[in-house]
Write a structure and sequence with these properties.
disordered N terminus; 0% strand; globular; 11 helices; mainly alpha
Amino acid sequence: NYLAWAAGSPPGDPEDMLRHAAEALALATRGGATAQIAWSHTYTARALRILGRLDDSVVAGTLAAESFRALGDVDGYVQGLASVGNSLREAGRCAEALERFQDALALIEDEDSGMSASVATACRPLALLRIGQCRRSLGERAKALTTVTEAISLRPERSDHWQADALETLAALLADDGRAAESRQAYARAATVFEAIGDTEAADRCRARAADADAD
């Protein structure tokens, strides 16, 4: 599973990740190593999602989540729910994705769930952002704006993909709400972060949308 993890690290090779995860799963299954089986399903789901095999990713992510739950590993179970949610959202199945992210958030916010406090703190803004994105796709724009704003407020500002994604989502929601000046500022901030992490295509997209907000 270490090789699968390494293959998934940026820039990564999802085909290698998938192959290593399959090898790890076979070894773990022969040895009855339940935790390693769960992690193998996790890396399989991640690789399949990157490859665009979203239905297969949902299946693998569900296996991972159920394996972690059987082990009593709440941290792993929440990550499994999020993995399934991500694949469902990318497949356009946003109502189903929203359910998974809300289930994850309920465990994150339950102090008696057995989840590690540090993991819960790290995962809460991640879950809230995905919930907000699903709500926007489902037309629940006011709720989405509140949720995404909360997600951004909970996480220290840094130059990474999550921050850029969150800011671009916020900008789009502000535009939906007719708040052009604020939307332009959020798009500009998103462009700066995308530029910092080397995603020039996304940076150019955000700058163009900021310009469109100016025109409006």
